[in-house]
Each structure stands twice: as C-alpha cells, then as structure tokens.
Amino acid sequence: CVVVQTWSDKILPRDIEKEMTIEKELSKYFDSSIQYKSLKSRDVEVIKSYYGFNNSRRLTIDEIAAEIVIGNRERVRHLLKSRFWDLVTIDDLPSLKKIVDIINSKEVETLTDLKKQIMSHNLVSNKVQIDGIFDLIKDLGISIENTALRNHFKR
Questions:
Q1: Is 57 in contact with 48 (CB distance < 8 Å)?
Q2: Distance between alpha carbon 125 and the CA centroid of its chain, in Å?
Q3: C-alpha to C-alpha distance for 25 and 11, rounded to whole angstroms
Q4: Cβ-based neighbour number of residue 138 at 10 Å
Q5: 77: Cβ contacts below 8 Å, ≥ 6 apart
Q6: What is the DSSP annotation of 58-95?
Q7: Cα(12)–Cα(128) distance, rounded to whole angstroms?
Q8: What pLDDT does residue 151 have?
Q9: Contact, 103 vs 144, CB < 8 A?
Q10: Rounded to an integer, what distance in angstroms lies between the CA atom of residue 146 and that of residue 114?
C-alpha cells in the first residue's frame, strides 16, 4: 500500500500556511523535495530562474541551458515538466490559489491593480515578477477567467 501525501501536508502546518508568500511556499517545497531526493539543487536553480523567483531577472530557456550548463533548451523544458509541472498543483500552493482568485475577481483590471492587491494580501514579496507568476499559473494548467488580464498569460 502506497500513501501519497502532498508536500504541503508534510511540511506546512495549516496555521503557518496562511502567512506564507508564494516564494516561501516554493522554498519549502524545494527544501522538502531536495530532502526527499525528488529534486536536485540544480533543478531548483532552473525552476527559480525560469520564473524569476531567484531575486534576479527571469532567464529564458536558452539562457538557462547556457548559464546552468545542463544541455539544450529541450533538456531544460523536460526538467521543468518532469520535476515541477507534473508534480505541483494549485492545491500545493495556497498563496497561488489566492492570487488566481484575485485575478479572477472583478476587483482587478490592470497589472497595477493586480500587483497592489496581491502585495496588500502579503502573497508575494516586492521583488517578485508578475510575469513569472502568470507563467507559473499557465504552466500548471490553471484557467483564468478575467478577460482583462488573460492576454498577459503568454511567454
């Protein structure tokens, strides 16, 4: 018998989870995944670089392949898919779920409105790149109902 737990059940107490930014949730996920040997530190560097969660500018797949020296763009894409996209769901990232709820609300119509809203709810740090969050939402297959912001969901 195999028991499957989400990473949030293993490492995030429910009362602390409410105070987490998406960056902190992802860091917990990465730390846990490295500990359980499902991710290598290089994989984490690739994922953070791709979404801009590494306190620097976002890198393209080609830049990641060249700078982290892991082969070609297809290898980077495969790593993102097999080590992250196929494993993480919106349920694993409560702050991302809240961000999607804000995006889909009628309260936000512009990127400026969105950034103000998610920062006022302490869902992201002031260093986060909104386009990285858009790509994370898209890559996890989460649909966006807000037509005013939907066209921003492309890389």
A1: no
A2: 13
A3: 10
A4: 15
A5: 61
A6: ---HHHHHHHTT-S-HHHHHHHHIIIIITT--GGG-HH
A7: 21
A8: 72
A9: yes
A10: 11
Read off the pTM.
0.77
Structure token pair of residue 118: 């998610």
The answer to whether the CB of 33 falls within 8 A of the CB of 39 is: yes
Residue 143: DSSP 8-state: -
**Contacting residues for 9 by C-beta, under 8 A, at least 6 apart:** none
- Going residue by residue through the chain (155 aa), what tens digit of pLDDT does each one get? 433 344 344 433 344 344 578 888 888 888 888 877 778 888 888 999 999 887 778 899 999 999 887 788 899 999 999 989 998 888 888 999 999 999 998 788 888 888 889 988 989 877 777 888 889 999 999 988 887 777 766 54
Residue found by looking up tokens 């917990």 in the block: 28
| Closest by Cα among 16, 48, 4 to 30 | 48
Cα-Cα-Cα-Cα dihedral of 130, 131, 135, 137, to 10°?
A: 30
pLDDT for the residue numbered 89: 86
